[in-house]
Write a structure and sequence with these properties.
By secondary structure, this protein is α+β, with helices and mostly antiparallel strands. The chain is built from ten helices and 20 strands. It has two domains: 4-229, P-loop containing nucleotide triphosphate hydrolases (Rossmann fold), CATH 3.40.50; 243-373, Nucleic acid-binding proteins (OB fold (Dihydrolipoamide Acetyltransferase, E2P), Beta Barrel), CATH 2.40.50. Helix 5 links the parallel strand 7 and strand 8. It is elongated.
């Protein structure tokens, strides 16, 4: 049975009258890799800063191992932080950067011998695969290596929790993917609880034990990566986690939903007869067939080659779907589609209904544009002041 380590109870936060967190309730288990996921401004970095003690919530309580820590300053919490800007000391080498916090403890009267400091630094450098780099100038290291130094420096003080605020944001795509695997390996090797902040859905799904999806200062869904992807709670989650076609539907009865005037078998139950619903169909769950065999027929309006597959935009009665397939259908061609019952997910109508899922303005370049414009919703400039 997992042991609860951190609990945020009814936490709210407002800046200049604007609500950033709205009555947030969250618990984090010991040895868990938990990711706070959402777009810029959703409240994820504010949540992280409250856990670390860098921000005092407007209302609510924070508990650590069952003890209320609202008034405990950051340096007295068993928590350390790695920021997107690593704040390494350029005048110190790798060993000295990692040992910095331990030397401060020794100066403060803690009983740490030089041999113990050397041993613990060597252990951390081994964990982050930087053995032999002890005397290297940190400015000569690659971005990924600098990140590992920052992680080793944070872990050497043996915190119970490591907070990571967009730590991979400055890395290129290839290195970013490599470091995702490294972070998960480090977390498993140390057994330390990781609380990770990102806006990158693939990153969250690849590394996390638990994903917390946030928007407008509210937790929209908590679950495993598989649950979040396969069973989204609302249209925001369905759209934010991967690609989704989200259409209006009507539940005729358990296991039967109507879309575009046609009835489809599904696996969902528990809805009222004739209840309006949101219907989620993932692009990879749609099979292209001959028009005569299709449950629905549509017209191909756009094709993007993605290497292993094609992203195809198909117009169904004015609503455009994204279909991911290995079969090429030319622009302008008529196609039929089939969807198995387990490829249809039903959600109740809510505040995000009607806002997502139509690919009328689809562009394969949108993801790159959003990455360029992205700005973290936390204050990275204070990173060095928070390092303990």
């Amino acid at each position: 049975m997992p042991k609860e380590l951190i609990r945020l109870l009814d936490c709210s936060m407002a800046f200049d009258g604007e609500v950033v967190l709205n009555n947030l309730n969250l618990y984090i288990n010991d040895k868990e890799f938990l990711t706070l996921l959402g777009p810029s401004g959703c409240g994820k970095t504010t949540t992280l800063r409250i856990i670390g003690g860098f921000q005092r919530q407007s209302s609510g309580d924070v508990f650590f191992d069952g003890v209320r820590i609202n008034d405990v300053p950051p340096h007295k919490r068993m928590v350390n932080t790695v920021f997107q800007k690593y704040a390494l000391f350029t005048h110190l080498n790798v060993f000295e950067n990692v040992a910095f916090g331990l030397k401060l403890k020794r100066e403060e009267g803690k009983k740490l011998s030089k041999n113990e400091i050397t041993s613990r630094v060597s252990e951390m450098l081994d964990i982050v695969s930087l053995n032999g780099f002890e005397k290297r100038d940190v400015s000569s290291l690659s971005g990924g290596q600098q990140q590992r130094v920052a992680i080793a420096r944070a872990l050497v003080n043996q915190p119970k929790v490591l907070l990571l605020d967009e730590p991979l944001g400055a890395l290129d795509m290839r290195l970013r993917k490599d470091m995702q695997n490294e972070l998960k390996r480090i977390q498993q090797a140390t057994g330390i609880t990781f609380v990770y902040v990102t806006h990158d859905q693939e990153e969250a799904l690849a590394m996390s034990d638990t994903v917390v999806v946030m928007e407008k200062g509210v937790i929209q869904q908590i679950g495993t990566p598989e649950d979040i992807y396969n069973e989204p709670k609302n249209a925001f989650v369905a759209d934010f986690i991967g690609e989704s076609n989200i259409v209006d539907g009507c539940m005729h009865s358990d296991g039967v939903v109507e879309i575009f005037g046609r009835k489809f078998a599904c696996l969902d139950r528990g809805f009222a007869p004739m209840e309006p619903v949101d219907v989620v169909i993932r692009p990879e769950d749609v099979d292209i067939v001959d028009v005569k065999d299709g449950m629905l027929t549509g017209t191909v309006t756009n094709i993007t080659f993605k290497g292993m597959l094609y992203d195809i935009i198909v117009d169904f009665k004015g609503f455009k779907w994204l279909i991911q397939t290995t079969d090429l259908s030319p622009v302008g061609s008529k196609i039929g589609i089939k969807i198995d019952p387990d490829g249809i997910h039903i959600m109740k109508k809510g505040e995000f209904s009607g806002m997502f899922g139509d690919y009328s303005s689809y562009s394969a370049e949108y993801d790159d544009i959003s990455d360029v414009e992205y700005e973290p919703d936390g204050a990275d400039s204070e990173a060095a002041a928070y390092e303990t």
